[in-house]
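Section 5.1 Outputs to date
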Amino acid sequence: MQNKRIIAVPTLFTSFNLFCGFLAVLLTSAGHFTNAAWLIFIAGVFDALDGRIARAVGYSSEFGLQMDSLSDVVSAGLAPAFLMYEFYLKNLGHVGTILAFSPLLFGALRLARFNVTTSKTGKAQDYTGMPAPMAATALGSSVIFFSVTQWAFIQRMSVILVPAVSLLMISSIRYSGFPRFSLREKGANRRKLLLLFGSLTIFIVFPRYFLFPFMLFYLFSGPVAAIAAIIRNEDAHLEIIPQNSEH
């Protein structure tokens, strides 16, 4: 009975993730773009929690891994793709349709790669390619930012932002994962932890204004770090589907 309860809690959060993605699609179809974008963000929060809860109780399973990725295909693939199509890309005709499809396609490719590599090598601290929930939040946050600024160029920016985020998902560019919650660790982990808490504080005060700039910062952090590694003559290369990499 205890094992069943342990299994149920992470799966419950995964189900919330899936449900938020489903609701985001419904709200987008009804024209409530900002609410749909917030649901995509909330889905990403549930996605971050389910895995951490599973590891905290010491029960990570193949079923949980597959369920999590299937949920992400909806909440971090279909939902943001449909949102960006209705938000602006539908005005571009067939080109807009293809662009809007790219987050769904490349998100599914990334999640499939994640499942294969995680099953072989286990879960790593950092990410290979931009995580699908973060990519989805980057797209959704642009809609939230537009709702409070009404800057027309934010809509037109979708033509660049959508394919850029899609390609970064399947790239081999490394992105930082969440820091370990320990102040005893010095160096990079402590800096990431302080950045996380500082960002959360600003987000709580100015959520609609802060989220999109922060996601742009995270988006650019991977390519900037990769370019810096190349300049330092470190072993840095790009592959669409890395053969031997962590997720």
